[in-house]
Amino acid sequence: MARATKRLNPRQVQTLKRDGYHADGGGLYLRVGPGEARSWAFRFRWHGKLKEMGLGPLTAISLSEARERSSEARRVVAAGRNPIEDRRARAAQRDATLTFGAFADELIRDLAHGFRNEKHKAQWTMTLTKYAAPLRSLQLGDITTDDVLAVLKPIWQKKSETASRLRGRIERVLDAAKARGLRTGENPARWRGHLDAILPKRQRLTRGHLAAMPYADLPAFIARLRTTESASALALEFTVLTAARSGEVLGARWDEINLDSALWTVPAARMKAGREHRVPLTHRALAILKTVEKVRASAFIFPGQRPGKPLSVMALAMVLRRLQCEDVTVHGFRSAFRDWAGNETAFPRELAEAALAHTVGDMTERAYRRGDALEKRRLLMAGWAGFLETITAGNVVPS
What we know:
399 residues; single chain; Double Stranded RNA Binding Domain
């Protein structure tokens, strides 16, 4: 009589507590280990000996997927082949023809959970697709220093920051390939003791790359901005009012907002420093939120044209262009806020830096600073909002 199969159900595989092997039938087992770690295994006889092939962790492989994998393994055994050796042979054949592009895409997927946010993942994907295009069709083991230089040289001085990040990402991909046994020898994208002897010292970013509007001009700019009735204009004004990064504003969701407490809490995953940041909301910031809430149709506060996507940073840049402020960047408004706080108020430097979500002090000092001075920052941001409401520049806002 054939043994019963499909003995487990989805609830059981999540709740089984006893360590050991739990049979589903047909050679498929759920392994429960210390700390309730769960993974799938296929057990079979090969030349009279019991063999075991791992099928993946429960966190990645569902019960139905595990059954499909064990079914395929049984077919391999029935055909007279060892499924473990068969899998190794297929992996070796695949690896032998793996290109830089395919491996880079695979690595990005594997690293995705460690990225700060979707924007970080998108930057990796874009640079290793667009700028590293000449490398993508090459076999991993064939890539040389000349190949890497052919990618970097055209942008090394023109787009120095992008080029530097691209080099580091290429190096990371090739290091991972070597760890997987897909290439040997030195990494042709290594900087120290290699490319640093070939490429000229790159031009570092200067303040001019993030051109800031003089803070004295901001009240008049805000007055002009309010004549532009669009979601993009409201998003830009909200960005100026909160002194936040554009990515933090564009990725903001309604569940981060507490209108009753006049508070916006940006989760750590969306912050550059990887720490939760609380932003006090002024009367005008709340008014903007209430305006866009009337047409709320997305989890994003400032949704874009495409369903499920936020407004793009280009939309904010287009607002500046329409207002003939093409020599100003969105990020520069943070600099304007910092200059205003330092020149026109008596608020401590640390408070202004905290408003910008900058890291202040050494590790010891930060360990003893428990709070984020929210209520003091609320006064600072109220002063900033009041300054932006005035058309006459040069107002001094007391602390």
